[in-house]
Amino acid sequence: MSEDKISLKHGAGGTAMMKLVKEVVLKEITQKNQGSIGLDELDDGATIEVGDKTLVFTTDSHTINPIFFPGGDIGRLAIAGTVNDLAVMGGKPIAMACAIVFREGFLVDDFRKICKSIEATAREVEVSTVTGDTKVVERDALDEVIITTTGVGLANDLKTDSQLTPGDSIIVTGTIGDHETAILSHREGIKIKGEIKSDVAPIWKTIEAALKAGRVSAMKDPTRGGIAGALNELASKSNVGITLNEDDIPISNPVRNIDEMLGIDPLVLTNEGKAIIGVNGEDCDSVLEAVKKTKYGKNAQVIGEVTEEHPGKVALKTSVGGQRLVRATIGAPAPRIC
């Protein structure tokens, strides 16, 4: 690597983070995987084969600031984020682990609120938090709290990032940019007409409905790096092109207004309760209808299609009739967003 120190951009889910992972993690950690998907695939999780069962295994750390925000808190974020990583690989969540590191002086009442949120979020998808750990560090070693969650899921129909095929339709399960815009506006004290809340939610039941309704090819939850990062990853790993229609991408008016005010592209913003679903074109209508009937899929839209053109790249047909490439970001508009 040309850089000798890790910066905030290396944790933002963009190309800088991927470069760090490939040049350090994949070169230094030996992999002996018992399933078809391991560390080097850099998917949302890994698989473990146990007899005739395929388990999906994933882990994630959460450093968001502030820990309580419009629409959620770090506890809901921790469970939802891990559930969603399992879900987009086709894994029904079956068990969760949770490790928490506190700063000395952290309020017990706040810890209780976080625990209640963890329980309520896990209960939405009927999964239990079965084990965990707590640690406490000195006041100046951490500003508040960090939560790491690990999840195990059971996949009857495993999905990976490399399974998109030309002719597939691309569905997004709801409005984009809600989470990061809510955090940014809350941090900066920006007030506009209309409520902005994080979309943080566990979306297994939405994914389950899609899987039952038609031939789903590949899925991704567009967290760090937004739908731009997620779609570029799908296109690259599947060696296909993706063409999006700007007018079809759902964005709420409050989010659009703040993003325009701040000069931020909503395509690169973190989402914490959405999925991108690639589905066989013939089954698109049935899958979309099934998704729209779920709690977290009411605003789902078809936003594009998979093509043989421009393999590995994502193109956007703009509202004014032009076309531009959608690139993955190097970093992110703001640190500590999830």
Verbal overview:
A seven-stranded mixed sheet has the order 9-11-8-12-10-13-14. Strand 3 (68-69) and strand 4 form a beta hairpin. With 338 residues, the chain is an alpha+beta fold. The protein folds into two domains: 44-155, 60s Ribosomal Protein L30, Chain: A (2-Layer Sandwich); 169-326, PurM-like C-terminal domain (Phosphoribosyl-aminoimidazole Synthetase, Chain A, domain 2, Alpha-Beta Complex). 47% of the residues are buried. Helices cover 29% and strands 25% of the residues.
Report strand %: 25-35%
Rg from alpha-carbon coordinates: 19 Å
- What would the CATH topology of the largest domain be? Phosphoribosyl-aminoimidazole Synthetase, Chain A, domain 2
Largest sheet: 7 strands, mixed
CATH level 1 name of the largest domain:
Alpha Beta
CATH architecture of the largest domain, by name, is: Alpha-Beta Complex
Gross geometry? globular
Q: What oligomeric assembly is this protein in?
A: single chain
The CATH homologous superfamily of the largest domain corresponds to PurM-like C-terminal domain
Number of helices: 8
Number of discrete domains: 2
Elements, N to C (H/E): HEEEEHEHEEEHHEHEHEHEEE
Lateral strand order in the biggest sheet: 9-11-8-12-10-13-14
Total beta strand runs: 14
Q: What gap, in angstroms, lies between the N and C termini? A: 26 Å
The average pLDDT value, as a whole number, equals 91
Report helical residue fraction.
Answer: 25-40%
Give the class from helix and strand content and strand pairing.
alpha+beta
Low-pLDDT runs = none
Protein name: Hydrogenase expression protein
Family: Belongs to the HypE family.
GO biological process, one term: protein maturation
